[in-house]
Structures are given as C-alpha cells and as structure tokens.
Specification:
By secondary structure, the chain is mainly α. It is built from nine helices and two strands. The chain has a two-stranded antiparallel sheet. A hairpin with a 6-residue loop joins strand 1 and strand 2. The longest helix has 27 residues. It starts with a helix and ends in a 6-residue tail after the last helix.
C-alpha cells in the first residue's frame, strides 16, 4: 500500500471520468469554446497535463518534464518553455491556441497520467513529509501539501472537461 493511496485514488477516479468524457469528443468538440471567455476541453486538458507534468517532474523530482524530454511541445507546435502551463493566459491567447490532433492530445495525457501514477505509487510516508520550497508557493511546505494542490487542480479541470462533454454531447462521462 502506497502512502499516497488517497491522492492516487482521487486521480484514478478523475482519469476514469476524463477517459469516458474523451470517448464522446472529436477534434472539433475538443477545440470548441462554449463562449468567447471560456476554455475549450482540449485547452483545459493541455493545461491540466502541463500542471501535473510540472509538479511530478520539475517541482517534486527535479527532473525534465515530459513536455520537453519527450518532445510533446513540438507535437503541440509550442515552445519548450517548462513554465508555460497556461497560467495567466488571456482569453485572446486561449482563443488563438491551436489544438493538435486528438491523438497527440490524448498521447500527452496518457504519458503524464502514467508518470503521475508511477510517482505517486512510489512515495513513502517519509517522502510525503519532506518539507521544502515547492513553487509556485514561496513558503516551505510538505510534498503531501503540494500533491494536494496538484490533485485539487487536476480534479477541478477533469470536472470541467466532463461538463463540456455533457454540454456539447449530453451525459456519458460516467457509467
């Protein structure tokens, strides 16, 4: 039993919901914004994966992100900026974002999901208690607290993806 089982369980349920939501979204619906000031499901998924990739690799393990190491930035037609996660983007920037194919979007999601599962499964209780400065928060905090922030963010965005799937196609994001 991993020390982070509770967090991993929350992510597993979120990933299951996202997987089901993606079954009903084609490339057009992934890129569709419900209104000018809203994010598309594809942009939300990209942002969610960028945050998880950043936390799992850069923030908590001091390793290169999959975004750069595995060339996902190139597949998305974007810069190899490890800090570009969409945080602070304007509505105009979100509107101008060009989503790659669904295969590329889902490929990055699957790669990040696998890395996050492996990382969280490997953590001991002592690992979770390590306290240090973990950006973007300037004060020292525990790895558990940082993972809690990452989990909250991912679950919030997973719900948004499922909501947009329901908005565009009707229910189907759960069974």
């Amino acid at each position: 039993m991993a020390a982070a089982d509770g967090l991993l369980s929350a992510h597993q349920r979120n990933w299951e919901m996202i997987d089901l939501a993606l079954e009903g979204l084609d490339e057009e619906l992934l890129a569709k914004q419900p209104a000018d000031q809203c994010n598309s499901a594809g942009w939300i998924m990209w942002h969610m994966n960028r945050v998880v990739d950043t936390f799992v690799h850069t923030r908590l393990r001091d390793e290169p992100q999959l975004w750069i190491k595995d060339g996902w930035h190139q597949k998305f037609g974007m810069a190899a900026d490890p800090e570009d996660r969409g945080v602070g983007w304007t509505a105009a920037q979100v509107s101008a974002w060009k989503a790659p194919s669904k295969d590329v979007q889902v490929g990055y999601y699957q790669a990040v999901k696998s890395a996050a599962q492996q990382f969280m499964s490997s953590l001991s209780a002592d690992d979770l208690e390590v306290t240090r400065v973990i950006p973007p928060v300037a004060e020292p905090r525990s790895v558990a607290a940082a993972l809690g922030q990452m989990t909250w963010d991912a679950v919030a965005h997973g719900g948004q993806i499922a909501y947009l799937r329901g908005f565009f196609r009707g229910m189907g994001w759960h069974r």
